[in-house]
Write a structure and sequence with these properties.
11-stranded antiparallel beta sheet; 9-stranded antiparallel beta sheet; 1 helix; 5% helix; elongated
């Protein structure tokens, strides 16, 4: 199916009343020109054969934009290139989620909750924890790193992470695209929703005395990192290798 035909089908779903719009604060910027900036209608797109959960449309005045998440996990952006047109003829290409926005080098599509500060969406992590082991690359935990799909997510970085975006909400899961940059395409706190996801999955949970990240594809975890919040001791376990001990400390960001 051609991209123009597919995009027209998406737009037609809204005109047919298949999506319930809710108020939001939106921005659409294309090649440096701001086309939407303020109150808008946010409409989730009902999943279908060519449309994955998480797809949506924003509309304000005579402009609208669409983010379509394909079954492969690839996210594509469209907008009505001509004001007042009902056809999303402007193709924006692949876009990646970044807080409340979807971005690439040419465009940005954003949707915030009414009253939510735009400046609070992309922010410094609430707490950064550095974990070190002699002779090994450091591991960094970013608690409350940013908002994704309406939830605050925490992230982990390390050389053992591959083919997924290692971020997830507390007590939940982050779902990554199976191809391309393996961008985050959704979050959930229901393990039942993991069935059928073809990309990488990250799990995170915290208690008063422990932080735990794990990641992999499907039901089998490829790695797990668990840190004791009281002692600072941590352990990395990678499938097929021996457990490695780390020492963690909270650090302050310089900027």
């Amino acid at each position: 199916m051609g991209w123009v035909k597919r995009a027209i089908i998406f737009a037609g779903a809204f005109m047919a009343g298949e999506a319930i719009a809710r108020p939001a604060d939106c921005m659409l910027a294309v090649r440096g020109e701001i086309l939407i900036d303020g109150p808008c209608d946010f409409s989730p797109i009902a999943p279908g054969p060519d449309i994955r959960k998480g797809s949506f449309q924003i509309t304000a005045g005579d402009r609208f934009a669409i983010i379509n998440i394909e079954p492969s996990g690839q996210s594509l952006g469209y907008y009505n290139e001509f004001p007042g047109s009902q056809k999303p003829s402007g193709r924006l290409g692949r876009m990646r989620p970044d807080g409340a926005c979807w971005k690439n080098q040419e465009a940005e599509i954003c949707a915030w909750k009414p009253g939510e500060s735009r400046g609070d969406v992309v922010q410094s992590a609430d707490r950064v924890i550095r974990c070190e082991r002699k002779g090994a690359p450091e591991i960094v935990l970013s608690l409350g790193d940013h908002k994704a799909f309406g939830d605050m997510v925490s992230c982990i970085s390390g050389d053992f992470v591959a083919d997924l975006t290692p971020c997830a909400p507390d007590g939940g899961y982050g779902l990554s695209a199976p191809t391309g940059s393996a961008a985050l395409v959704g979050v959930t706190k229901r393990w039942q929703e993991l069935d059928g996801h073809s990309g990488g999955i990250t799990n995170f949970f915290s208690t008063v005395d422990k932080l735990s990240f794990s990641g992999g594809w499907g039901a089998a975890w490829d790695w797990e990192f668990v840190a004791d919040r009281l002692t600072g001791d941590a352990r990395l376990t990678v499938k097929g290798g021996k457990a490695l001990e780390y020492k963690c400390v909270a650090v302050k960001q310089k900027f």
